[in-house]
Amino acid sequence: MPTTEQLVETVTSLVEDAVTAPSMHNAQPWRFVHRAGTRSLALYGDPSRSLPAGDPDGRGLHLGCGAALFNLRVSAAEHGWDAATELLPDPRDPWHLADVVLQEPDPAEPGPAELYPALRQRHTSRFPFSDERIPQEIVDGLRGAALLEGCRLIVPGTWHSEAVLDLVRDAELFESADAALREEIASWTRTGKTGEGPATEGIPSYALGPRQYGVTAPARDFDAPRDLPGRAVAAFEERPQIALLGTLDDSPADWLRAGQAMERVLLQATLDGLSTSLMSQPLEWPELRSLTREPGSPTGFVHMVFRFGYGPRGVATPRRPVDEVLTVE
Predict the structure, then answer these.
(1) Which residues contact 90 (CB under 8 A, 6 or more apart)?
(2) How many CB atoms lie within 10 A of CB 239?
């Protein structure tokens, strides 16, 4: 049995790995609590880091926290533990998102330790990808990764893909007309100007990528006013390769499952040599979100749109220090 000090060291390592997860605008909306002397760890959403304009119902917050939860599971497996997880354990506290208990692993059910090398290799890429098509066996593997977390990954056909990309562009128009949303996005962008938030969160200017020449692969542009000097302009791929992650239902528990599936897919894609980015813009507008779903699909609700391809890997964005996100009681 590990000592209390050893357990605290292990939990600290797990949380350091967990917070490499992506989150909307890199808001990092998670908080972990460990009771000293136990093998338990609780995950909470942090309402002070919510996005009232872009994520009023908290779906994006749950996705980010679900991704951090999956990273914790990967790290636990790498450290020789099984992370037994219960979602939404306290109906009286909607911010209490999950409880995790570290258990001896079952040799018959190996954990996801094979994904561990990708934790610090995975970064969102806002750069152009080549038009090289992804082999079918890799796509099938990504589908399987989503299924392992109880979700479905849909690779749309030509017409559906074009329709989704049109919705992304529609969402950008909605965004440009919403002053509160533009202000919120700007508050999470770090360009070195006076008065910006802490450098340990948000999207730094070095991670913005080039401005897009044309709109074929509309990665979100955090420099919409175009006032960042010296930023390059580039043409993106003509036929973006996208996939949609969805679930049958649309509850907070489904959002947490989707967040875990999202991260599992991203880590697997990284190990497969793919660059990745996320396009959540049309999912942030109720009038557009339902239109992303293919008619007749058994996937009732889409939670994320992935963009996959071969091209420059993204760069690491900052993370808050572990003592800001982990409390040991």
Answers:
(1) 96
(2) 14
CB 151 within 8 A of CB 244: no
Distance CA 267, CA 259 (A): 12
Structure confidence by residue, pLDDT tens digits, 110-164: 789 999 999 999 999 999 999 999 999 999 999 999 999 999 999 999 999 999 9
Helix 158-176, helix 179-187: angle, nearest 10: 90
Q: To 10 degrees, the CA torsion angle through 241, 277, 18, 95?
A: -100
Confidence (pTM)? 0.95
CB 196 within 8 A of CB 188: no
What would the 3-class secondary structure string for 29-74 be?
A: CEEEEECCCCCEEEEEECHHHCCCCCCCCCHHHHHHHHHHHHHHHH
Q: Distance between CA 290 and CA 271 in Å, rounded?
A: 31
Nearest to 54 by CA among 211, 186, 191: 186
Residue 95 DSSP one-character state? T
> Rounded to 5 degrees, what are φ and ψ at 58?
80, 10
- Give the HSE-up count for residue 12: Cα atoms under 13 Å, Cβ half-sphere: 12
Binning the chain into helix, strand and coil, the percentages to the nearest 5 are: 40, 20, 45
Kindly report the number of other CB atoms within 10 A of residue 162's CB atom: 13
Cα 249 to Cα 150: distance, rounded to the nearest angstrom: 11
